[in-house]
Every structure is written in structure tokens, then in C-alpha cells.
């Protein structure tokens, strides 16, 4: 039995329980968490995907060896919590798009109420030796709500998206209350060291914390922080790419390409993915390097995301217009420069597409990690691999470094030059880069991610005591709202952190 498995159950909590019925789609929380849940007798707790006039009872079931607990959320609060605060405020803020942040008091109040509700329902299921691992920006205050209910379990938090700098966080109304909630966790994990440094900077300047080698001190409270880059199951994805069906599909696509170079991008429809700038970089390639015309095809696979949100509808319209413009400008009767698919594809299908593509173009304007970059590399033929072009603003760039071709996604010439370089890169250089990328990905795999995080969570730092915690000296004007032990948090109307029967 592993060290972590002997510690008691692992309780993973996320906004939405991942796809655990059958084969999941590419990327996402489900892929990264499956091995941790199975190895640690886990329970995955989250939203059921349904809303109701009142919050429903928790539904427990076992799916593919994973125990799952789901909860219907109240309709009256859900849109304010999810589309309003989580995705209308925190998502753009964490992706450095302050211009898109929409803050409304009613959204924040609903966000707090939903977190309080989830805490109450979860508390009824907990055992004293359970370890709780909370995921992502939807649930930042969850530990604070659990502590208010008397929970003394070890609780960790992992932020899958980027950590914004102090200057952006400080523009968020009630930012100290929100960020102070993190001090109720035992471990706070980020994707990169850059994210960790930004969190430390904020905590020192706004929460009165001091920084240590392995975390932060806030009065008598010690919070461990660390960079835990999410990885993929490399061997599993290699298996997808080398399955008979995938190899057959890859050969079929190569035949259809008829010697042309295929560039591939795979992203959700989201402004953070840099899709408009990516298309502009491809257009610049065709302008700047005329030999690329009729010899290169760009396949962009973009499943629709948050299609009910007007900003995403407008973004989709703009992207489709740009694709049509490029095809109208450069296309011929027997060559379409840019093919654009609005559908989600299974991992096995994506693996075949990756393998048939000489260039993987992954250029988000900001991304926590980006698993597509890793999946593309894993799918390649090691004897004739493709080339990864990666945004320097993706978290994966901190790991992959110069083994990928790093670009500035805001500079279309930089993207175009990298595309042209990748087209003509020698086989020897491609093999060397691919070998080094694969070695790094194997070292920092999905399994390494969950094991290293759980080792930190199982460390010797004491769980939060039942009493309040004294916070170190804070900046002038700091009220301490949301920070343990400083004062009673300024809670939304109707919000009470107490045990309530489901």
C-alpha cells in the first residue's frame, strides 16, 4: 500500500465532477485526477450539472471505480455564481484581462453562498482522517466555510489557472476578503514558480504575510505553497497515438495532405487561447513566406465553450470571420488554407490528428499550464516527430523551455517566423527536441503531479486549530476581512457559516 493510500480517503472537490463515464475528452481535470482518486480510495464531490429551485440532496454512486458525490445547485444563485463571478470576474482577471472583468455585488454574494452550501453538504460526508483537495477558482473560499463548520481535516487547494499579479488583484473589489480565504488551507498549489511568486507578493503586500522557502507565515499560521505543474499520462497518450485505428487514421490524413505540411491547434473557444492572434500569425506566414502558400494547411479544432455567454458568441463570430477572410484571400479551388472545426473530439481521434501534423501551434495569450502542448508531443512518431510551437505565456513554457519553439503570441511576425522555421527544421533537430521534451514530460507526469501534491498535503504542518489565528502586521487600512482570526468576515446577506441539515 502506498504512503498516501494509508492516510485515509482523498476527497477531491471541484465545481463540476469530471467525465468518468467511459473515455474522457482531451485534457481537463478528469484526466489529471483519475489516478489520484483510484489510488487513494477517493471521493469526487461536485456539482451535478443540474439546477433546481432548491439545492438537492447529495447523490452518491460509483463510476468506473471512482466514488462520486454530486449536488444540484439552486437556480437562483447558480448563474450569478458561475457565469457571473467565477467566469465573468475571476476568469478574465486571472488571465490578465482586467478590461473584461465584470464585478457585481450580487454575483459575489451568490459565489459565497454556493461555497457555503457546498461546505455544508460536504461536511456531512467527512471522516476525521479524510484529506480534502479543492480545485480551482470556483471554490477559493471553501476551506474558510469548512473551518467555520468545525472541520479540522487537512485541506489543500490547487489553482489550475494563472495567478494574476498584485496590481490586477488589487483592482478586484473585496480582494482581501477573497484572497484571505486561502489562508485557511494547509497547502496552496500553483502551476508554476512564477504563479507562486505572484501569490507571495500579494500576500506580503496585502495580507501581512511573510514568505519562507516553502510557503507563507501569517502570524501563527503556516501555509505551504508550491509549484506543482499538471502533467499527462504520457504512456497512455502514446498508446492512443500508436493504436491500429489511430495509425490508420493518421496515414489516411497524411495521404489527403499529399505532401503539404499540416499545422494543428486544439483549444476551447475562449479569448485566453489567443485564437485570433494565432490566425493572424498564420496569415502573416502566407504573406511573408509565399512558398508556404498551397504547401501548408492549418487545422484548428475549437469546441464551443460557454456558448450562452454573449462575449463568447461575439468572439466566435469574429474568429469565423477571420477564418473566412484568410481562406478568401489565399485559398484556391483545390486548397483551403485554414480549416476550422467547432466540435469536441475524443482523445484517440486527437492523437491521430496530432501525429499527422508536422507542427503543433499552441499560443495562448495566458494559460495556467496547457496540456494540449504535452499531448501533441506525446503523439509524435519519435523517428519522425513534429515540432511544438508554444506561447511563452503558457505555464507549460516554464517546463518545456527551449525544447519547444517559444513565441510571443502578440507578435504575428514571431509566430510566422517560428512556423517557417518548423517547416524546414532538420530531422536530427526534431528528434533531439522531441526526445528532451518527452523526458521532461515523463519526469513531471500526471502521476508525479498528484503524488507530489499529496506528499505536501500529508506533510508535518499542523492542520488549522479550532480557534482563531492571529495574522501578522498588515498594511495600513487592512481590515482583515476574510482572513482567519482578524475579524468576523463581512459576509453576504443571508450567509451564515453554521451547520445546516441538508
Automatic annotation (TrEMBL):
Domain of life: Bacteria
GO MF, any single term: alpha,alpha-trehalose-phosphate synthase (UDP-forming) activity
Record-linked SUPFAM superfamilies: UDP-Glycosyltransferase/glycogen phosphorylase
Region (Disordered): 478-502
A Pfam short name: Glyco_transf_20
GO BP of this protein: trehalose biosynthetic process
Stated family: Belongs to the glycosyltransferase 20 family.
Protein's UniProt name: Trehalose 6-phosphate synthase
Upper taxonomic lineage: Bacteria, Pseudomonadati, Pseudomonadota, Gammaproteobacteria, Nevskiales
